[in-house]
């Protein structure tokens, strides 16, 4: 038996990193100004820094979390994204990704991951486990996590390219 309403539990789960960052930030503030000077003061400054970093990273991750319940399941194991849907699916190595885009014209909206090894992988943003894609996308060189979170808020009529592999951009520029 639980005493927390489901919508409150979902909000806590969505913003969990930001909430933990806030708690560490407040503890660091207390230690840095609320106790006698000494070692605990320096630990307080360190906690302030770590809490602020975790808070801002948690805000970005919280903004990017849509929630589950959509079609299919996403799994990430050893830099390999796997999507197992009711009608399609596939596996993509992060090192083989050539571009990442968000297609707002599909219902629900889909991440479109193109790669060297075959057809593009289309993953609904609300698939079970899709919130783990935020961390995987953050490992792509030059892709800002803030851009990923901001793009999820946008509505559009055509796919939005978030990232393209740098050597691929050079090849495209030479063709024109």
- Proportion in helices: 40-55%
Strand content: 15-25%
- Determine the N-to-C terminus distance: 64 Å
Number of strands: 7
The largest sheet has its strands arranged as 6-5-4-7
Can you tell me the overall shape? elongated
Flag low-confidence runs. none
Main sheet properties: 4 strands, antiparallel
Give helix and strand order, one letter per element, not per position.
HHHEEEEEEHHEH
Q: Which class of secondary structure composition applies to the elements?
A: alpha+beta
Number of discrete domains: 2
Number of helices: 6
Gyration radius, to the nearest Å?
Answer: 20 Å
Whole-number mean pLDDT: 84
SSE diagram, text form:
Elements: H1 6-14, H2 16-33, H3 39-64, E1 73-77, E2 80-84, E3 89-93, E4 97-103, E5 110-115, E6 118-124, H4 133-138, H5 145-153, E7 160-164, H6 166-175
Antiparallel strand pairs: 1-2, 2-3, 4-5, 4-7, 5-6
Helix pairs in contact: 2-3, 3-5
Describe this structure in words.
This protein has six helices and seven strands. It is an alpha+beta fold and 176 residues long. It folds into two domains: 6-64; 73-175, no CATH class. It is elongated and about 60 Å long.
Write a short abstract of this structure.
This protein is of the alpha+beta class and 176 residues long. It has 6 helices and 7 strands. A hairpin with a 2-residue loop joins strand 5 and strand 6 (118-124).
């Amino acid at each position: 038996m639980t005493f927390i309403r489901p919508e409150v539990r979902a909000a806590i789960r969505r913003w969990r990193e930001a909430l933990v960052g806030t708690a560490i930030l407040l503890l660091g503030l207390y230690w840095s100004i609320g106790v006698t000077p000494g070692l605990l003061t320096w630990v307080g400054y360190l906690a302030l820094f770590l809490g602020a970093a975790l808070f801002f990273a948690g805000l970005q991750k919280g903004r990017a979390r849509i929630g589950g319940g959509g079609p299919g399941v996403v799994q990430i194991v050893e830099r390999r994204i796997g999507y197992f849907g009711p009608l399609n699916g596939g596996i993509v190595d992060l090192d083989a990704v050539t571009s990442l885009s968000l297609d707002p014209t599909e219902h629900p909206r889909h991440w479109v991951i193109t790669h060297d090894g075959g057809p593009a992988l289309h993953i609904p943003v609300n698939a079970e486990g899709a919130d783990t894609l935020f961390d995987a996308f953050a490992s792509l060189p030059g892709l800002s996590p803030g851009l990923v979170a901001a793009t999820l808020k946008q509505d559009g009529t055509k796919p939005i390219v978030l990232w393209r592999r740098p050597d691929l951009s050079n090849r495209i520029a030479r063709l024109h």
